[in-house]
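G., the chain you wanted modeled:
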Amino acid sequence: QVQLVESGGGLVQPGGSLRLSCAASGSMFRFNVMGWSRQAPGKQREWVARIFSGESTYYVDSVKGRFTISRDNAKNTMYLQMNTLNAEDTAVYYCYAIDRFGTHWGQGTQVTVSS
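Predicted structure as tokens:
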């Protein structure tokens, strides 16, 4: 019923930037929390960033000052602006949204940081 579609991943050189998008079906006002997680090869999935309906934002320490999460309810889209990327950021990035019925996940988009 709920669909989340990520886009914007790809190959980028160290120090470069990418902007990920997560398009949601329906109005996003029903999601009190939205965010991003990532999973690198051979590692557990880790939480990266979240944004509340009141637009308060929180980040894992490793991305503070480099990543910015935002949401545009009019476009039903959430974004993750990623700057100063390094090899440790290489992972599949998943967006998620939480409503009163549970947590919903996108299919993921690959981000590879390499020279």
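The two ends are 40 Å apart (CA to CA).

Shout if anything looks off.
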